[in-house]
Amino acid sequence: MIPPQQLLVLSLVLLAIGMTGVLLRRNVIIILMSIELILNAANINFVAFSRFNGGGLDGQMFAIFVIILAAAEAAVALAIVLNVFQLFHSVEPGGVDRLRD
Questions:
Q1: Are the C-beta atoms of 83 and 63 separated by less than 8 Å?
Q2: Angstrom distance (rounded) from CA 59 to CA 43
Q3: What CA–CA distance (Å, rounded) separates 38 from 67?
Q4: Which of 99, 87, 101 has its CA nearest to residue 79?
Q5: CA distance linking residue 90 with residue 8, whole number of Å
Q6: pLDDT tens for residues 13-56?
Q7: What CA dihedral angle connects 93, 98, 99 and 101, to 10 degrees?
Q8: What is the DSSP letter of 89?
Q9: Is the Cβ–Cβ distance between 50 and 59 less than 8 Å?
């Protein structure tokens, strides 16, 4: 059985990598992948706390719900990114400011 400290450290590492990707990268695809890493860190926390807090299925249910929402978010975001790429020939977030005009 894995100790909860190791699971929390793994979750913290995934959260740090995801936050670094969101804050430092200028490519929308990389930002979306970083958001997925952040959501996976939350899923690990849900399952770890559920496992070591009585063994119920609450954490697993929350994790499955987050996975479903992440899949829907990824599908909508990738559709938007593809449309933006067709219009502007770039996937940089700063290159889409012409939409305000």
A1: no
A2: 8
A3: 12
A4: 87
A5: 37
A6: 999 999 999 999 888 889 999 999 999 999 999 999 998 888 78
A7: 150
A8: S
A9: yes
Other beta carbons within 10 angstroms of residue 72's beta carbon come to: 10
**pLDDT higher than 90, residue 6:** yes
Sequence-separated (6 or more) residues with CB below 8 Å from residue 10: 44
Say how many Å lie between the first and final Cα of the chain, rounded.
57
Q: Which tokens sit at 38?
A: 């952040």
How many CA atoms, within 13 angstroms, populate the side-chain half-sphere of residue 41? 18
* Cα torsion through 79, 81, 82, 83, rounded to 10: 90
